[in-house]
Amino acid sequence: AAKYDYSYAKAVVLQKLNRYAEARKAAYDAISFDGTQGEPYILIATLYADSNPFGDDKILAKTVFWAAVDKLEKAKSVDPGCGGTTQPIINSYRHHYPSKEDVFFKPELKLGSMFHIGGWINEDVRCRE
After folding, report:
1. Cα→Cα distances 26→9, 31, 33, 111, 120, Å
2. 40-74, pLDDT tens digit by residue?
């Protein structure tokens, strides 16, 4: 429990310092010590939601919310007790998803298909509305 607590605390501090990639690594370290806790996934979700690896592209910038919600859903699956915390955040983040019209105007986005979010996030997510 001490290794988990240390790693999670480190992730929180790194998040506050805007060192997102390092914060995510510390959160994953915490998960490796105790995979039944949802908090590290919630922290990763907030890191993603606070990020924009797409510069001025306002539509692609919204795709980080797909990755964030994926982490929140993972938090709920490993730690059902955190559902009361995660569900309101999920509902909030879903309002930021790219709209159907946004997706239509971006050839790299196709509903139901996978999309790669680059930068420090570097994850594949399903394109959805």
Report:
1. 9, 9, 11, 32, 14
2. 999 999 999 999 999 999 999 999 999 999 999 99
Strands 123-126 and 114-117: antiparallel
pTM over 0.85: yes
The tokens describing 87, both together, are 């569900």
Average pLDDT over residues 100-107: 93
Using the structure block, give the residue that is written with the tokens 């997706």: 103
SS (H, E, C) 1-58: CHHHHHHHHHHHHHHHCCCHHHHHHHHHHHHHHCCCCCHHHHHHHHHHHCCCCCCCCH
Residue 115: strand, helix, or coil = strand
